[in-house]
């Protein structure tokens, strides 16, 4: 699968990885994730180098990943530490090691470094405002049968709301897009936009939109390679981590952040808004699965309008990353 390298990608939520190994396809390859005795997460190719059994069907024992076929035991670095058939004092053949991946765990996610190993790594691409005290969140997991580019662009599209969502987002009849004003750089994409009923009003100039955006938080932010946030209200945010599974499937880790403190009220609030988010995403899905070609970077026949500025910025930046013409993943 062709993805920008030297970036951190969300691959799992922390809650998904407990005591047992977890097998998952990511970036078009089968991986196994597990925790050692110190609760540190590790990831390898989900294949024992002995005879190819899936390690995700094995277990974790004494802080090591154990193959279900012949009991080979591997440490977090992928080194084989024990072959039962050879005995405790037996030699371990050279090359009997696992392909390993660099992981970090933060913000309730497990992140995988897709690129060359290095002595130090850039910061994880997340949103500083959500690190403040008082935020609570609910996480929903949704899988779509679409390429990750189409999934991401759908959340950067400010012109579809009245037609795909209508009353579900309070956008019924609000088809006029004033702008958007879009800023794009190595840190990602920021979008200021508003939708209104079409009364024949003129669009504001880009200079006027830029001036109006000064000092105001963007409604939408996207950080490469795949984290997105929607500013709904001062104490409400939606966050999506887009996870490329393969060329035809993308996983959404959909989060609803809020600051409701009372536990019972917070839980009810999360249930209601979680349902609403899944409903809205299902409305998007019905349309996005029909888009062709699957990978938006192959869509040479697409014709853009002014409201597509963020989509255009995304395609340009992604094309540069894939071509190796852009610097490594930035910080926040």
UniProtKB/TrEMBL annotation:
Keywords recorded for this protein, A-Z: 2Fe-2S, Dioxygenase, Iron, Iron-sulfur, Metal-binding, Oxidoreductase
Record protein name field: Aromatic ring-hydroxylating dioxygenase subunit alpha
InterPro entries: Cholesterol_7-desaturase (IPR050584), Rieske_2Fe-2S (IPR017941), Rieske_2Fe-2S_sf (IPR036922), VanA_C_cat (IPR044043)
Keyword hit for Ion transport: no
SUPFAM superfamilies (UniProt xref): Bet v1-like (SSF55961), ISP domain (SSF50022)
Rieske domain sequence ranges: 8-112
Metal-binding listed as a keyword: yes
GO-annotated molecular function: dioxygenase activity
Record lineage: Bacteria, Pseudomonadati, Pseudomonadota, Betaproteobacteria, Burkholderiales
Domain of life, per lineage: Bacteria
């Amino acid at each position: 699968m062709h993805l920008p390298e030297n970036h951190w990608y969300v691959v799992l939520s922390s809650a998904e990885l407990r005591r047992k190994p977890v097998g998952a396809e990511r970036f078009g390859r089968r991986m196994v994730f597990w925790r050692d005795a110190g609760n540190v997460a590790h990831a390898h190719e989900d294949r024992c180098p002995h005879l190819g059994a899936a390690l995700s069907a094995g277990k974790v024992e004494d802080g090591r990943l154990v193959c279900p076929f012949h009991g080979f035991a591997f440490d977090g670095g992928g080194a084989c530490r024990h072959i039962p058939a050879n005995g405790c004092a037996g030699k371990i053949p050279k090359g009997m090691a696992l392909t390993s991946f660099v992981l970090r765990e933060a913000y309730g996610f497990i992140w995988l470094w897709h690129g060359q190993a290095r002595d130090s790594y850039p910061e994880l691409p997340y949103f500083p405002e959500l690190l403040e005290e008082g935020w609570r969140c609910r996480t929903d997991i949704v899988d779509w049968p679409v390429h990750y580019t189409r999934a991401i662009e759908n959340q950067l599209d400010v012109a579809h709301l009245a037609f795909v969502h209508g009353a579900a987002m309070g956008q019924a009849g609000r088809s006029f897009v004033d702008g958007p004003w879009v800023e794009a750089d190595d840190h990602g994409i920021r979008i200021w936009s508003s939708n209104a009923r079409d009364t024949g009003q003129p669009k504001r100039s880009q200079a006027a939109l830029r001036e109006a955006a000064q000092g105001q938080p963007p409604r939408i932010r996207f950080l490469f390679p795949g984290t997105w946030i929607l500013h709904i209200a001062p104490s409400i945010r939606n966050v999506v981590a887009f996870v490329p599974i393969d060329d035809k499937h993308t996983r959404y880790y959909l989060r609803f952040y809020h600051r409701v403190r009372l536990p019972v009220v917070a839980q009810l609030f999360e249930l209601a808004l979680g349902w609403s988010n899944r409903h809205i995403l299902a409305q998007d899905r019905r349309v996005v699965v029909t888009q062709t070609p699957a990978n938006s970077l192959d869509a040479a026949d697409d014709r853009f309008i002014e409201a597509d500025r963020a989509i255009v910025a995304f395609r340009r930046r992604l094309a540069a990353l894939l071509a190796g013409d852009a610097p490594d993943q930035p910080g926040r």
